[in-house]
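Structure tokens please, single chain.
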Amino acid sequence: QVQLVESGGGLVQAGGSLKLSCAAHGLIFSLYRMAWYRQAPGKSRELVGHITLDGNTYYAESMKGRVTLSRINANDTITLQLNSLKPEDTAVYYCEAKRPAWGSHPELEHWGQGIQVTVAS
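Here you go.
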């Protein structure tokens, strides 16, 4: 059974930091591009950043300089370091794993259940 388990969320004051973790279970972790998304109240889901199989990162422009994605392959885990948090960062943060289509197999995608990050003003 594939499972993405997020942890590390919670309540933080504006300007503070949080570190989120996503532990993957039941998949071949090294074959997946991993990502963090978030969805704020009343808004669509948006990409925070993703990290490739070989550790290259991409960040949404609005997040650059405030977030760091890391991949810990030995532990089948990715982390998201969030710094200088703002109230508008309040959202449910989702871990995503995606494997491209190969041969006759379709693309594979899995989502965590999400974890709340609340930034108080």
